[in-house]
Structures are given as C-alpha cells and as structure tokens.
Design a protein that fits this description.
By secondary structure, this protein is an alpha/beta fold. 44% of the residues lie in helices and 21% in strands. The chain has 2 domains: 249 residues, 3-Layer(aba) Sandwich (Aldehyde Dehydrogenase, Chain A, domain 1); 182 residues, 3-Layer(aba) Sandwich (Aldehyde Dehydrogenase, Chain A, domain 2).
Length: 473
C-alpha cells in the first residue's frame, strides 16, 4: 500500500511513501523492545541531555517544520512555528522535571522500609491525529522517553512527512536509533500492533469512534490506554462579562488551527442580555479573519486538512440550518482550489441540530442563547463530550466556582480560551476520553506504580524489639 501526502491548499501530491509489511512492522517493534532493555537503565541525567537537544533542534528548525505542517495539512505557517516552539517547551519541561516526578515515595508502614517506585513499562504505541502533527506526538513522547519507555508512532496517514521528521529529530538528538520509531501504516494494521505482546500500552488522540475501537482491542489484550478524543467545548458568556474581551477570546479559540482543534471553542452559550451585541461583535470579528494561502504570514484560516472533512463539516452546517438554525455568516463552500471552508456563524442553535450535539471540526461557531446562569450551565453540560470549557464573567469568584464545581469537563478556564500547557494535566471525561497527559499526572500514566515492602529479618526484628524494650525500661 502507498501512503500519499497531499497539499490540501493546492490539491497537489507532495510525496508517496511505501507502507511497511507486517513482517517489517514486527521487526521494528522487536528492535524497539531491545532498545528498551538498555534505555530503561539510562540515568535521568543522560536522558535529560538528549531531550534538551531535541528541544534545541525544534527551535533551530521551527521554520522548516512549520512549512512541512503547512504543506501536508494546511496549517497557517505562523501557527506551525508556534507549534514547533511549544514542542521544544514540553521537551525542556520533562527534561528538567521527570526525575523529580518519578522519585520514590516513602510510606510509613509496619515494615522496616516501604515505598512506591515508578518503573517504565516498555514499548508504548501512540496513535496520533493530523491536526497538531508535531505537538500531539511530543506531548506523548517527551514524558514517556524521560520515564524510560520507548515509543512507536502510528501517525495519521495524511502527515507522513511530519511523522518521519519527528523520528529523525530524536535520532539527531542522540537517542538510541530504535527508542522512537515511526510506522507509516494505515489503520488496518493497528489492531495487530496492539496484539503484539511486546507492545505494553497504547495512547490515542483522535475521534471517539477511533477511541472506542482502540480501547476495545487494548481491553481485550489487558493493556493500559489513555484516550484524548473529541470535544464540543462550551464557552459560557454571562451577563457581567466584558463583551469585547470575551468576543476576541472566543473568535481566537474558534479559529485556532483553522478551527480544527479538539479544544477549540465550539458552542457559545450567551445570556439574552448580551445576545445581540455578542452576535454583532462576533460576526464582525469572524468576517475580518483572512482566509487564504497558509504559507502567507497574515493568513488566519487555511484550508481544512482534507476535502472529505470539509464536506462533512458543510453538511453539518446545512443540516443545522434545515432544522432551524439561523446563518449569520459564511456557510458556503468557496469556488476555488483547495479544501477551504469560510468562517461561519450560526445562531438560534438548539437541541436536535448537529451544531448543538456534534463536534464541528472547522471554523464554524454555534451560538446558543440562554436566559441565565442556571440555564447556561445546564446547556454547557448537555453534551456527550467533556474535554474543555470556558466561562466569561467579571466576577472572578463566580467564575472560579462555576469552573471548579459546575462545568463537566477535564479542563475549565475562566476569562481565557482552553489550551494545553506542559505544567497542567490535560484530558477529558465522558466521550472525550480518559486518562491524562502532561504535568506529573501524564508521566505516571505509563509506568508501573510498584509497591516495595521490606521486612526485617528475624535477627533484625529481635534486635529492634530488644532496643524498644530497653528504651521503655
């Protein structure tokens, strides 16, 4: 089978790659497992030097990697540079903190000594998406390599060049040749890879159906999984919100990566007091966003990553309109080359519409008017997803309460758009998946949390008893 990288802005084929055979895949996994036996014994200090070097490569060649992302999946090039820089950040973060995160934890028991230690598992399979083709991988790879695991990457088939570039970054940084390997395979080989006894765990970022399939197979094989799946993030704008600031933040979050982000703002839940002004300002900002060639520095909205994804998005918009949503902006496929879809705004969105229930993976905003805070929270939580959420209010204590206690999501932000940060755990609940990436929680997902209990020998127990008795006398 041939994997073809195609430029979604021009419809031109960039390069073709041959998919490895089943036997070649087994051999790569076996060599990764052999590398693990050595890598797991490498001191943290040596791992950190290599991880810092990977960060240096990412920074030095950020422009090159950004162009690769742009050509393969249409990311605006300035966003690609920022993505490469963020990958460098996560590499440095775990290089500096992994040893501390995985220190033994002493526990007082009746033993002579007891503690918890964190040991690597081995080969971890990562099934990754195209929308952040570097960041999604590095936020998995940095903590796992620092923990002593080795990685096997099955990347999305439309970003093979990015996948190979990431493998080369780790090799150039000095990591063992088989400590991080890319498998340019289609989805049909994933099941067999999970079944391979040398693969100890699986992490997937992608759609909910893909997550179900991987979780089912991994569960059958009794292998640990972390799933970061879809989202339909609610952004709640209350009566006392600063509308100008809220709209700026909401538009920025909706258009990040041309709208193709699991944690992009999707549903805008606005109280009636602010509804008209919010809609006016929102449409104004969305209309001003420049859609065009993603290689141009001033482009804010590039093409969608594939034509089929663009067409699916358009059908969600049309179906929502057929069911009563009001179109305020956009909503038509432009008559030009490339998988473009314009910034689009729907209002009067309600239950029963795709824009209310489904993830809109593109630059389409769904405005849902509500009466008050109580209804806003109910609507925000009325979703099968639970990845991110945001609340906008000038009452910080009110916002903190709602974010901490009311919104059903893994990441809740006040007066800011939802984003991932190496210092904070990232992940969702409900059909947005389970487990956490990043921070101390992420590095502990794929380690053996091992209890060690050391009892006295009979001789030591007797000596201790005698000392205790002497003290009491």
């Amino acid at each position: 089978m041939t994997i073809v990288a195609m430029n979604p802005a021009t419809n031109e084929n960039i390069r073709e790659y041959e998919e490895p055979t089943v036997e070649e895949v087994r051999d790569i996994i076996a060599r990764a497992d052999q590398a693990f036996t050595r890598w797991r014994k490498t001191p943290f200090s040596e791992r950190a030097v290599l991880m810092h070097e990977a960060a240096n490569i990412l920074r030095d060649r950020a422009g090159e990697f950004a162009r690769l992302m742009t050509l393969e999946m249409g990311k605006p090039i300035k966003d690609g540079r920022a993505e490469a820089q963020k990958c460098a950040w996560v590499c440095d973060y775990y290089a500096e903190n992994a040893e501390q995160f995985l220190q033994r934890e002493l526990v007082e028991t009746d033993a002579r000594k007891s503690f918890v230690t964190f040991q690597p598992l081995g080969v971890v399979l990562a099934v990754m998406p195209w929308n952040f083709p570097f960041w999604q991988v590095f936020r998995f790879a940095a903590p796992n390599l620092m923990a002593g695991n080795v990685g096997i990457l099955k990347h999305a088939s439309n970003v093979p060049g990015c996948a190979m570039a990431i493998e080369e970054i780790f090799r150039e940084a000095g990591f063992p040749n088989d400590a991080f390997r890319t498998l340019l395979v289609g989805s049909s080989q994933v099941e067999a890879i999970i079944e391979n006894p040398l693969v100890r765990a699986v992490t997937l970022t992608g759609s909910t159906p893909a997550g179900r399939a991987v979780a089912q197979k991994a569960g059958e094989m009794l292998k640990k999984t972390v799933l970061e799946l879809g989202g339909s993030d609610p952004y709640v704008v209350l009566d006392d919100a600063d509308l100008e600031a809220a709209v700026d933040t909401c538009v920025a979050s909706r258009l990040i990566n041309s709208g193709q982000s699991c944690i992009a703002a999707k549903r805008f839940i606005v109280t009636e007091k602010n509804r008209s002004e919010f809609e006016r300002l929102y449409v104004q900002r969305m209309r001003a966003a420049k859609m065009g060639d993603p290689l141009q520095e001033d482009t804010e909205v590039g093409p969608q990553a594939r034509h089929d994804l663009r067409d699916d998005l358009h059908e969600q918009v049309r179906e929502s309109i057929r069911k009563g949503a009001t179109l305020l902006l956009g909503g038509e496929i432009p008559d030009n080359t490339g998988a473009y879809y314009p910034p689009t705004v729907l209002t009067n969105v309600r239950q029963g519409m795709p824009a209310y229930h489904e993830e809109l993976f593109g630059p389409v905003a769904a405005i849902i008017p509500v009466a008050d805070e109580t209804e806003a929270i109910r609507v925000a939580n009325d979703s099968v997803f639970g990845l991110g959420a945001a609340i906008f209010t000038n009452d910080i204590k009110r916002g903190e309460r709602i974010a901490a206690e009311e919104l059903q999501a893994g990441c809740c932000f006040v007066n800011s758009f939802v984003k991932s940060d190496p210092r904070l755990p990232f992940g969702g609940i409900k059909e947005s998946g389970y487990g956490r990436e990043l921070a101390v929680y992420g590095i502990k997902e794929f380690v053996n949390i091992k209890t060690v209990y050391i009892a006295d020998t009979p001789e030591q127990a007797n000596a201790r008893a005698e000392r205790s008795q002497a003290v009491t006398e």
